[in-house]
Design goal:
There is one protein chain. It is built from eleven helices and four strands. The protein has 322 residues and is mainly alpha-helical. It folds into three domains: 57 residues, Orthogonal Bundle (Arc Repressor Mutant, subunit A); 47 residues, Homeodomain-like (Arc Repressor Mutant, subunit A), CATH 1.10.10.60; 174 residues, no CATH class. The protein has a two-stranded antiparallel ribbon with strand order 1-4. The longest helix has 18 residues. The relative contact order is 0.11. The protein binds a DNA duplex (21 and 21 nucleotides) through helix 4 and helix 7.
Length: 322
DNA sequence: AAGCTCCTCAACCGCAGCGTT
DNA sequence: AAACGCTGCGGTTGAGGAGCT
């Protein structure tokens, strides 16, 4: 369906002139934009309402941040994109002053190339198939140990992570140690989430999300993750924290994000059945949430984990079933 | 200087979703 | 329920600038 506002009238197209900008700014400032379709006429512009809206949102709005993206912004984009995919508008919400169009352009012109140069698939954030990828490995012990997965320590190329509350249950039942490993299971099966952060580091409204599709330096002996400074607002406030507690070499990209991102990411993973079904190891983890959805998510995680750990399915065959 | 290629990014297009009639 | 109008979103395009030959 075309845009009737455009089809009905002869409208100007292409780049906006300073005079047009001025007219639009003047009109929006004085009258707002309750109905974009009427804005051009009211502002004396030969444009369609849609074009006016776009010009305002992407260029003229007073609180827009111009200029190149900072390293921090770039990192946020990559982190959130890994969870949400090409949802530019959602990603832009976490970058004050940036528009979806700007984020999209930046992604396509810069980040995408950077990731590919690093051998990462910009869509999945996994290693490209031409690289040696943990996510595409079967449970081949040679391959696993080659990449640092000692059989006695960590048999699986991924862990599945239910909310922290389930960890607490297990902890109280005495089945896990403080690094999240199931001490009673042969081979120290990695138990859901928690991943060693101290309990008091995550507040009631914070979420720890991690992606396990990359290796960390074996000699490093520690990994970095980020933690939210304590606010439950929608802003993403990163404070680098380091921990040496996570003994095996399987994690990267931990970020504390707000609940909206978590819910979008988690529900996306569940609804689209991405992640395990596609052999990706970057399934979302959450360490905490309070909604009913979490019960379902937790069940799904636990069921999938049980299936994997019992050996009834390979990673490639795991299905979300919820 | 001219011509060409590559890159960036503002703008457009088509579609989906939602509310109203 | 269907048609319509509006808004918002993501993919794509193309003008123009930068860099190279």
């Amino acid at each position: 369906m075309g845009h009737l506002c455009c089809a009905k009238q002869k409208v100007k197209r292409g780049l906006w002139s300073p005079e047009e900008d001025e007219k639009l700014i003047d009109h929006i400032t004085k009258h707002g934009h309750s109905c974009w379709s009427t804005v051009p006429k009211e502002a004396g512009l030969q444009r369609c309402g849609k074009s006016c809206r776009l010009r305002w949102i992407n260029y003229l709005k007073p609180d827009l941040k111009r200029g190149s993206f900072s390293a921090e912004e770039e990192r946020i984009i990559i982190d959130v994109h890994r969870i949400l995919g090409n949802r530019w508008a959602q990603i832009a919400k976490h970058l004050p002053g940036r528009t979806d169009n700007e984020v999209k352009n930046f992604w396509n012109s810069c980040i995408k190339k950077k990731l590919m140069a690093q051998g990462l698939d910009p869509k999945t954030h996994n290693l490209l198939s031409s690289s040696r990828s943990v996510t595409t490995m079967n449970n081949n012990s040679d391959e696993l140990s080659r990449f640092g997965y000692g059989q006695s320590v960590h048999p699986a190329p991924f862990t599945i992570s239910p909310p922290i509350k389930s960890f607490d249950k297990m902890k109280h039942a005495g089945s896990v140690d403080h690094c999240g490993f199931n001490s009673s299971a042969a081979g120290a099966i990695p138990v859901p989430n928690f991943q060693c952060q101290q309990d008091n580091m995550i507040s009631d409204h914070q979420l720890l999300m991690g992606f396990k599709d990359q290796m960390i330096d074996n000699s490093q002996g520690s990994f970095d993750f980020t933690a939210n400074g304590g606010s439950s607002s929608s802003s993403v406030d990163y404070t680098n924290v380091s921990s040496s507690c996570f003994g095996h070499q399987q994690a990267s990209g931990f970020s504390c994000l707000d609940e909206n991102i978590w819910h979008e990411g988690a529900m996306e993973a569940l609804n689209s059945k991405q992640g395990l079904q596609q052999g990706q190891a970057h399934q979302v983890e959450a360490s905490y949430a309070t909604t009913l959805d979490l019960e379902m998510i937790e069940s799904a995680f636990l069921a999938a984990e049980a299936e994997f750990c019992s050996g009834t399915t390979s990673m490639e065959n795991l299905q979300w079933d919820c």
